[in-house]
Design brief:
Layout (H helix, E strand, L loop, with lengths): L1 H28 L4 H6 L1 H5 L5 H11 L5 H13 L13 H36 L4 H15 L2 H12 L23 H39 L2 H8 L4 H13 L1 H10 L2 H4 L2 H6 L5 H11 L2 H29 L7
Helix pairs in contact: 1-16, 6-7, 6-9, 6-16, 7-9, 8-9, 9-11, 9-12, 12-16, 15-16
Length: 329
């Protein structure tokens, strides 16, 4: 296990360099740059800003250096845990990330927990009660949920429950109301939960539908195995067969997906945060892309890349816990 862990950690180093290098290259090769966004394409094209001012601005930002030199400088800053400053706001990128990350972690971790907590029993029920009317109804509802786009559902919630045309029962902007700081702690928690309902639902329903289908398929494969028939032949109750013997081995696909879903905790959902006015990592990345704020984009990309690699590593390690037959040499 130690050799496996060390080998995987060493492989993460070139993977990290590859991800950041490709991202850095695409950012600088794409049309537009912070100079044109800050000074305005029209002002530059009409000559309202002198070439000397533009050259000075590019030199100040380090954009006049060759791309390899710019990437090397960025790597050197990362070694010192310095992501630079946001070129639009002038704030350190670490400060911007520290402000946005807790918001996205709150939303995404709740959505991820609810997805797994609901999808596992739904998948088990669908496999055990396959071809029953209840299973067919659940399958139909899950397919409907899976087919609905997030923007459509978010706008539908606003129209139906956010004061659009029918009911005004759910807040649809931000994570707290005005005067939140003056509320007592129980009232703060209640207000936060009330604001979380709509965005968390939009972040949950799609992954819930897909995870439950994966769980159903994995459970169906497991309960057809010989050792499950043997357990039933020994006289074990159906509950013991399903939850003691079949469930654990059917969790492997969901463990794999967990490693892929972990980056979602940082990236969040740009669409959901945009629609509901939530200043999380998704909104931060969206604004940075529009403003060509290279430092902020690279900061978000670095966090997402690291979490992706850690997530894959954690899922590999969890294999040995879920299935004792798997051992890492």
């Amino acid at each position: 296990m130690k050799r496996f862990l060390l080998r995987r950690l060493l492989l993460m180093v070139p993977t990290f360099f590859g991800i950041t290098l490709v991202t850095f290259a695409f950012l600088h090769l794409a049309p537009g740059d912070p100079v044109s966004m800050s000074m305005g394409d029209a002002a530059i094209g009409q000559g309202a800003i002198s070439r000397e001012a533009i050259a000075h601005f590019r030199h100040t930002m380090g954009l006049d250096d060759p791309l390899p030199a710019q990437y090397a400088k960025w790597l050197w800053r990362i070694v010192r845990f310095d992501f630079g400053n946001g070129w639009r706001t002038g704030q350190p990128v670490t400060q911007l990330l520290a402000q946005s990350l807790p918001v996205t972690l709150l939303l995404s971790s709740i959505a991820l927990f609810l997805s797994y907590a609901i999808a596992i029993p739904l998948g088990v029920h669908a496999a055990v009660k396959r071809d029953s009317p209840a299973e067919k109804l659940v399958t139909l509802l899950l397919f409907i949920l899976y087919s609905l786009p997030v923007p459509f559902v978010a706008i539908l919630i606003i129209l139906l429950f956010g004061g659009g045309h029918f009911f005004n029962v759910l807040p649809i902007q931000g994570l707290h109301r005005d005067g939140f700081e003056s509320l007592a702690w129980p009232a703060r928690i209640g207000d936060l939960v009330w604001h979380l309902i709509a965005p968390v639902f939009c972040l949950t329903y799609g992954s819930l539908a897909s995870l439950s289908r994966y769980m159903r398929g994995a459970m169906l494969d497991v309960i057809r195995q010989d050792y499950i028939r043997t357990a039933r032949a020994k006289g074990l109750s159906e509950r013991a067969v399903i939850f003691r013997h079949a469930l654990r081995n059917s969790l492997l696909p969901l463990v794999t997906l967990l490693g892929l879903y972990l980056p979602f905790l940082v990236g969040g959902s740009v669409i959901v945060e945009r629609i509901f006015g939530i200043n999380g990592m998704g909104m931060l990345a969206f604004r940075a892309i529009l403003e060509r704020d290279y430092n902020v984009i690279m900061g978000v990309t670095t966090l997402t890349a690291l979490l992706t690699m850690v997530g894959v590593l954690v899922s590999d390690l969890l294999y040995a816990i879920v299935d004792p037959r798997i051992r890492h040499a």
